[in-house]
Amino acid sequence: SCNRANRRVVSSKQILLHAILHSMLYQFYVLSERGDAIISRHYRGALPKDSAVIFFKHVMASGHDALPPALILDGINFFHIFINGLYFLATTPENAAPGSMIDFLLRLTVLFKDYCGVLTEEAIRTNFVLIYELLDEVLDFGYPQGTETERLKAHVFSEPIEVHKRDVLQQAARWGSRMLNRKTVSSRETDRPIALSVKKEKKRK
Fold first, then answer.
1. pTM listed for this prediction
2. How far apart are CA 188 and CA 18, in angstroms?
3. Smallest Cα–Cα separation from 82: which of 26, 28, 23, 31?
4. How far apart are the first and last CA of the chain?
5. In this predicted structure, what is the pLDDT of residue 183?
6. What is the per-residue pLDDT for 177?
7. CB-hemisphere CA count at 13 Å for 103?
């Protein structure tokens, strides 16, 4: 029974490793509701640089509500999530596991929210240097790495720029049910970027 348990553990690790290796991103974007590329990072040269344009043309033609989280356009695999009027988009020409890709994108949004305080277009634009630094830490030539906020504290040095609460509430009113849950627009303290929260706590001590 012990050998069987060990085989199950090895098998689970092999499945996880296989999923990670097939979740390599060739490109990552954060697009506005207008299709503007707020964040753009290319990890492999095999795909056209206008992949985001191809994706957004399809959005305009089919409508957002009819858009599946994973689709193939012009031989490119697109994976996306739509939060707060923003498209978080990953591309690859390979047969990646959709669940792994979508899960990684969700983890990225949580990470961005932790460091920016809120997940809005204004926050992403204002903290673009910080966002790129985070991407450098969590994507190694397109291969997803750990996205744990606590682990990254020792490796990320850019200071977050806090976005006014008024701007967040205005965007919340605009997008309504499409806003992320209360973890995205919540109390004043949870909207504070994690680096600023740590400094505030140290001052108290």
1. 0.76
2. 41
3. 31
4. 52
5. 44
6. 46
7. 12
Burial class (CB in 10 A: 0-12, 13-18, 19+), 68: exposed
Helix and strand counts by DSSP (H, E) for the chain: 8, 7
pLDDT of residue 31: 98
- CA pair distance 79, 68, nearest whole angstrom: 9
Cα distance between residue 195 and residue 200, in whole Å: 9
Where the chain has pLDDT below 70, the residues are 1-22, 165-205
Smallest Cα–Cα separation from 79: which of 61, 65, 62, 93?
Answer: 93
Closest by CA position to 112, among listed 188, 69, 163 = 163
Could you read off the pLDDT of 104-124 as tens digits, one per residue?
A: 999 999 999 999 999 999 999
> Which tokens belong to 201?
């706590």
Q: What is the dihedral of CA 55, 58, 59, 65, to 10 degrees?
A: -120
Q: At a CB cut-off of 8 Å and minimum separation 6, what does 178 contact?
A: 82, 83, 84, 85
What does the angle CA 85 – CA 139 – CA 193 come to, to the nearest 5 degrees?
A: 55
> How far is CA 136 from each of CA 33, 125, 141, rounded to the nearest angstrom?
25, 17, 9
User: Which pLDDT does position 171 carry in this prediction?
Assistant: 54
What pLDDT was estimated at residue 39?
97
Residue 187 carries which DSSP code?
A: -
DSSP 14-43: HHHHHHHHTT--SEEEEE-TT--EEEEEE-
